């Protein structure tokens, strides 16, 4: 992958307040693929002590978004147009990984898939989403 894309992605990731707040980390970025990790801490849980479904969605959305980021022009950015998630198991592990991958790429829409796995490689959730490519106005 292009070094410029990697540096741009790392800079964008570290400057997003939500990722800093939740503790998400960009573990790996390569062409059409990303891996995001997140520690499962008390502040991210719901009433039963499992990781909140909204947090799971955020990790998967971020993983899919950064996978899509690797294929867009440098004068563009992305927003999520839609997403669908299947939750398969409650998140009780100490750390999870969102693995995002580009499935289909057009000029304005990029379809991505992301899987949430625990440290033992168990699948916890699966997402499919559409990312909308937006040209910078600068």
Automatic annotation (TrEMBL):
The Thioesterase domain, residue ranges: 49-122
Cleavable signal peptide: none
SUPFAM superfamilies linked to this entry: Thioesterase/thiol ester dehydrase-isomerase (SSF54637)
Record InterPro entries: ACOT13, HotDog_dom_sf, PAAI_dom, Thioestr_dom
GO MF, one annotated term: fatty acyl-CoA hydrolase activity
Annotated keywords: Hydrolase
Gene3D superfamilies: Hotdog Thioesterase
Family: Belongs to the thioesterase PaaI family.
Protein name: PaaI family thioesterase
Gene source species: Brachyspira aalborgi
Upper classification of the organism: Bacteria, Pseudomonadati, Spirochaetota, Spirochaetia, Brachyspirales
